[in-house]
Structures are given as structure tokens and as C-alpha cells.
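Run Adenylate cyclase protein through structure prediction, thanks.
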Amino acid sequence: MSSLISSIRSYYSANIVGRVLAAHASGATAGTVVSHNYANIPGAIPLPATLSLELGDVIKEQQANITYRFVSDLPFKSRASHELDDFEKRALGALRANPQQTLSDLTRVGLTDTLRFITPVVMGQACVACHNTHPESPKTDWKVGDVRGIQEVIIKQPYASNVFAFKYLLCYFLFVAVIGLSFILLQRQQARAIHGANRDLEAANEFLASVSLKISRYLSPQIYKSIFSGQKDVVVHTERKRLTIFFSDIKDFTATTERLQPEALTEMLNEYLTEMSNIALTHGGTVDKFIGDAMLVFFGDPETKGPEEDAKACLRMAVDMQRRLGELKDRWRRNGTEEPFVVRMGINSGYCNVGNFGSNDRMDYTIIGAEANLAARLQSIAQGGEIVISYETYALVNEIVDAHPLPPITMKGIQREVVPYAVDGLTLGADHKSRVLSEHLSGLDLHLDMSRLEPADRLRVRTALKEAIAALDDALPEAARLRQDAGQM
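Sure, done. The structure for Adenylate cyclase protein is below.
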């Protein structure tokens, strides 16, 4: 508003007053008179200051809460002095020192805020010419850019009136607030319902997790994972796949049960099966089932690395089982068991039917086929602590195994003769110089892994083996020793 009024006054000063004064200066004295008292002079026009004052009255009539003041401490002689309060006096002094600023003041009385803006009234060329020649001017040395006075806009903002003026907006806000509050209450109610549902769901999940954990104890981890991940359906369905089958049992287990108390036997058997299962899982084998003291493991389903790698993994598993069994037997002997378990193992490779066998109400994930029976037969002809493999398996693992053939065997359901191989140890290199020897009999547990034997310990092992050979020689009957000496000669 202040800028607008200044523009109006400047226009009036330049285009009305300036033109009239210019006409008088050229000698045309008859004509329009410029006066603050223009209303009493026919044909006169108001001074710019008079115009500003009257515009302020017009503004006040239009806006009751807005006041426009045009005041100066140097009024014309015929005019009454303007009353300036402290803020206006300070503002006038500050603007004369620096006209390039706008001053404001905000005061609050009760529920009414009063905002005041003050800008300078700067003398233009036309104004200077008029004031310096006017007979009633209090000062005749005005220069362009001097601050003549101030123009001030005063705006009063009564809160009560504003609130009433925005009643429809307030009604809208109140309506929105009610809707928002209802939404919040609904959200809280839903949150409580969801929280309760989450508690029930967590309880159900905990129960299902507990049941799932219990069920997992009856399944091989690979089968459990494939079922619960959705990779396999729980329906009666089988596939024909090339597998490597491992079968083991404890030699003379019936006689062992007679020597041991049931509690000790149960503890030893559970520990043995647990350790063997962990080794099987480490090598990627699927533990099919436990048949008393026997154990059936197969490689190639549900995950496979190819027939050759599956067979090698199975053989390494069997060797690791014999090694671990030797450690267990040493501990069992220290605990008072004179003759711990001696385990026989058989391995065969071939095609079997694998999948879910049974009824819609009760099924078992297992393998069926002559190749599985052959693995059991190979185990039965193995000596205690020995691993016997079929020719099919030997062909797949010959790069890593030292083995010698055994007499061929025949088996019901298999037309050909089967040539079994007894495993002497594993080779760790193509030159077959680094070997793993494993032999486990009643009274003997030998597992020699050259790759893991420190150079400093090899002399100690050599000495121990020599002492063992000497002890065996001393234990031979005299006649047998003589025959042995004769044979050496």
C-alpha cells in the first residue's frame, strides 16, 4: 500500500503539478492553482502531500483496521503541527540518516496486534521546486533526495474479529478435525486388532516351529529342506536316478548286546549313530534310515554333484567314519568297555528308484532296487573295520583310492558276477605316494593320514609301528614263526 500510494503521488506530482508549474514558469500565469486549500479555490488542484493525506482518509473509510498517516515535523505554516509519537520520531531520524530502509514495529495489547510500517517521503525534482518557492513552506533549501516526512501504514489485527471472519474456515477445520480424530480412533482400534492377531500368529508360528523342529528329527536335512521349501510335494512319487549307496552295520552286534548293560549299549549306540550321521551330512549324504545298528546313506538325491563326485564324497565319508569310530572306541575303552563296536561298510553305485513310497496316509522317502541290496551284500562280506566297494564305484573313485579285488560273488537278482574291492586307503595325489591308511579290527584301530602327519611325528609313528610288529611277532606261535622264517628264506 505504501508503494502504491507513493507511485500515485509521484505520478500526480510529475504529471499534474509539474506540468502546471512548468506552464507558470513559461509565463502562463493564468490557470490552475496548486494549494493545500484547493477546495476553496476554483480550479485549484491539491498539493501531493494533501493528496496523500486525503488518500489516507479514503483508505481508512474502506478498511476500518487500516490507518494511513502522512506526517512530517516540518508542516506548512498554515497547517497544524503533526503529532508524532516516539516510534515515529525515531523512525524519521533514522530515515533521514539512511532513506534506503523500511521500519516496522509490532505491539500486542490484549487480543489485538498492531503492526506499523514506515517508509520515507523523499523529495523529487518537482517537489523541491514547489517547496522551495512556496510562501508557506517552512524550509526553502530542499534538495532532491531529502526526507520530507514519513508515510505510515498501521494495521490492527483483533483476534476475536479474525476468528469470526474465518468462521466457515474454522467450521471446515473442525469438521476435518472430527474426521481425523475418528480416523485416529479407527486406526488405534485396528492396531489393537492387528496386535492381537500378531500375538496369535506368533504363538502359532512358535508352535509350528516347535512341531517342525520335532518333525525334522525324523527326516534327513536335505529331504526336510526340499519339502518345507516347496521343492518336493508330499505325494507318492518316485524317480529313477543314478546313486551311490552306503550300507554299514556293527559286526557281531548280537554278541555285543549280551556283554553290555542295556543302558550302556543304548548310550553307545546313540552316540555312534549321531557321530556317523554328522559325518554323512558334512559330506552331503542323505541319511535314509537306521535299521537297528545298520545305517543306510545315499548320494545323488535330492542334491547331486554328478556320479563321480557323489561316489568320491561317499568314499571319503566312509573313511572319515572309520577314523571317528577309532576315536570313539578309544574313549569307550577308557570308560570300561572292553570290546567296542567294529563296523563293516559296503558301497555300490547304480540306478535305483528314489522317492516317496507308501500310502497317502503314511509314506517314507527311501530307495528301492537291486543296487541298494548289493550295497548291503558288500557290507556283509567285509571284514570288521573294512570298506568294500563294487567295481562300478571303484571305476568312479579309482583316482583317489588304493584297493585290491576280492573273489567275485553272485547275488540273487543280479545275473552277472560282482567283483568287490577292499579299500586299502585313500591317495592324496596322482603319484599315489601320499595315502590315508585305515584299518579297524577287534584290538586294532589304525588310521594313518600322511597329509596330516607332522614331519617331527613321523619317527615316533615309525617307532610305534615297529614295536607293534615286534609285539605281533612275539605273539605268534612257535610253529607259525618257524614257517614265517622259512618263507622269508
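DSSP finds 14 helices and 16 strands in the chain.
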